[in-house]
Design a protein that fits this description.
single chain, mainly alpha, 76% helix, globular
Length: 508
């Protein structure tokens, strides 16, 4: 009975979202339900509730700053024309939209998300996907499906929490998580490609899909095994970028296509951000600081804000763009941040009151059948909190204890928890709202490509990906179907969780 009551906040959330109630209102209703259950059933001292939320304050401030900096950087890149230059160069270098999509899904997004975390991979990917000619809805879906290396997001603190609470070795967990990510890469990659270019052209690009997914999987596994866990997503994304660009370069030599337009200046803000993050990480490691406000200043939040302040100079823009960009960003940022904060509060409330533990224990009573459900438990945490770290804090210890009770390898079950929670965080309401905001406000390409998959043709200058074009686009104000975005992403994720459950049963 208590398990059913504990699940009520989740059911309320899903029911209201299905009824097309706006995400903040759904979150408030779920928090109200959880609060009522805390008073009536899951009695928790007020001091414990206050302490839990207070401990989340630095995380919430960091998250708000990262979202503001990420959205502002995207707005500045758009206003200065740097985003359009990158989109044109990307489309021209890849020669086809399908390869460009794979490069973003398996290269750009994993690299950006693994380095900074908190959905910044989506902030970088969605505007680029719009520049390739994807509609706002398709760009939002494809961008979210690129969040496939979240176990290593922000250099893997979520995996570290999972290892500590699950009482397993950190590096071994990284290796197992990498192996379990094979269905994540294949299924999400196939779904992203199908959404972006259509089923017919997705089938034609299956060879490139296998190459991209295989490269990312092999690189992530190798780095976890021989280098260490934190850098696996970063180096995996870079390896995939290198392989796909190498394939394009070979094709260029065979077809005579030459690309000469430089984009080094357009990449300057990203280069500055990456350099700053590496310096910040090194400084924190040297000083031994692992938590507190200095981690916020020296982490993605501080460096993103500094990058946005210097973006105009880094890009060499002559027209002042920052004041107007800040006003536009603020209008979009508060909605995304409010939604994210409310779901983070909900996840914290479910954890501290024991509701999440109650649900996990009820599922553990199913015996071996629990193994099929284990990925879905991790997914619930990821979906509600929008954070792999938060989800692992909710369920990693319970998953490990259940594994021991069933005589099942704890490392493998904690790995399933880590991978499923990470993937589901990419489909959380907060991430969907972020992707929808970015997609609806990012301009399309300078010329809109036709629906058919383009083929590379010989040329001696950078040109749009297609050889035939239609009218110019000047704005990206088309509405995003958030319902379609959410359910498409969740459907792809559900397929992954089914496979992971089957793998758990076979492993037994």
């Amino acid at each position: 009975m208590n398990a059913l009551l504990a699940a009520l906040p989740i059911l309320v959330t899903l029911g209201l979202i299905a009824a097309k109630v706006r995400a903040p209102y759904a979150a408030l209703a779920a928090i109200g339900t959880a609060a009522a259950l805390t008073i009536t059933t899951f009695h928790t001292p007020v001091a414990d509730l206050g302490d839990a939320q207070l401990r989340m304050l630095p995380v919430l401030v960091e998250l708000a700053a990262i979202l503001f900096g990420g959205i502002l950087l995207s707005e500045l890149m758009t206003r200065t024309g740097a985003q359009a230059a990158l989109g044109d160069r990307l489309g021209g270098a890849c020669g086809s939209r399908s390869r460009a999509v794979l490069l973003i899904v398996f290269g750009v997004t994993p690299f950006a998300e693994s380095l900074t975390g908190f959905g910044i991979g989506v902030v970088v990917a969605v505007p680029l996907l719009r520049q390739l000619g994807l509609t706002p809805t398709k760009a939002a879906i494809t961008g979210l499906l690129g969040l496939v290396t979240v176990p290593w997001g922000s250099l893997a603190p979520g995996s570290l929490v999972s290892a500590e609470l699950g009482r397993v070795d950190f590096q071994q967990l990284g290796v197992v998580s990498a192996l379990l990510s094979a269905p994540v890469f294949l299924i999400c990659g196939a779904a992203a490609l199908t959404v972006a270019v259509g089923p017919r052209y997705a089938v034609r690009a299956i060879g490139e899909l296998l190459l991209a997914a295989g490269t990312l999987w092999l690189a992530v596994w190798a780095v976890n095994t021989y280098v260490g866990v934190p850098l696996a997503g970063v180096l995996g994304g870079l390896a995939t970028l290198a392989v796909l660009l190498l394939v394009s370069r070979v094709e260029v030599r065979a077809t005579g296509i030459v690309h000469r337009e430089p984009v080094g200046r357009a990449l300057a803000p990203y280069a500055f951000l990456v350099t700053g993050l590496l310096i910040g990480r090194a400084a924190l490691a040297v000083t031994g600081i692992e938590q507190g406000w200095w981690t916020v200043v020296a982490g993605p939040a501080g460096w993103l804000l500094l990058t946005t302040a210097l973006t105009r100079r880094l890009l060499g823009a002559r027209v002042p763009v920052l004041p107007d960009a800040i006003r536009t960003t603020a209008a979009r940022w508060w909605q995304v941040t409010l939604t994210t904060a409310l779901f983070l509060i909900l996840g914290t409330l479910l954890t501290v009151t024991g509701m999440s533990r109650e649900m996990a224990e009820a599922c553990a009573a199913l015996g071996p059948a629990y193994l099929m459900i284990a990925p879905w438990i991790g997914a619930v945490g990821g979906f509600l909190t929008g954070s792999n770290t938060g989800a692992n804090a909710m369920f990693a210890a319970g998953q490990s204890a259940t594994a021991h009770a069933l005589g099942y390898p704890a490392l493998h079950l904690v790995g399933i928890q880590n991978v499923s929670a990470a993937l589901a965080s990419g489909g959380s309401i907060a991430r969907v709202v972020l992707a929808a905001e970015l997609a609806s406000n990012s301009p399309g390409p300078r010329r809109v490509p036709p629906e058919n998959e383009p083929k590379p043709t010989p040329r001696h200058h950078l040109a749009p990906t297609t050889t035939t074009t239609t009218a110019l686009t000047t704005t990206g104000t088309a509405p995003v179907d958030t319902g379609r975005v959410l359910w498409t992403v969740l459907t792809a994720h559900a397929a992954v969780f089914l496979v992971l459950g089957a793998v758990a049963l076979i492993r037994r």
